[in-house]
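User: Sequence recovery, please. Input:
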């Protein structure tokens, strides 16, 4: 499956178009209220675009796996459009998984990107009546 082809066309309001939107995300390390003990540093970041985690060209190419494990379940939810009253819309700071670490991770929705259902899965859309 090729899940990362992007579409530059305007998204149709027609829900039968097979197109859907996801937010691109930026996940940035910010300082909490106690010192950080893991190998992440204030200001480090990565992007999430579609199913990819992308590290910046100029930065380190690694990220500690334990805080990443805490972040991963939230990223697909933050990528999706949510109700303005949903806490997933408003809450954007996640604590490090190590309780002794002051690291926090700010998840910012950057922009919406259009994807095609047919290019992200082999499962067909349900038939329309
Ligand atoms: Zn940490």
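Assistant: Recovered sequence (129 residues):
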């Amino acid at each position: 499956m090729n899940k990362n082809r992007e579409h530059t066309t305007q998204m149709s309001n027609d829900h039968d178009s097979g197109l859907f939107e996801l937010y691109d995300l930026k996940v940035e390390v910010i300082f909490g209220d106690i010192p950080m003990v893991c190998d992440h540093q204030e200001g480090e970041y990565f992007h999430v675009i579609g199913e990819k985690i992308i590290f910046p060209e100029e930065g380190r190419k690694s990220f500690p796996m334990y805080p990443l494990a805490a972040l991963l379940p939230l990223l697909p939810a933050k990528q999706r459009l949510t109700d303005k009253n949903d806490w997933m819309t408003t809450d954007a700071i996640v604590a490090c998984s190590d309780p002794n670490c002051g690291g926090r991770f700010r998840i910012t929705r950057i922009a919406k990107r259009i994807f095609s259902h047919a290019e992200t899965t082999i499962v067909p859309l349900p038939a329309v009546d």
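The chain has four helices and five strands.
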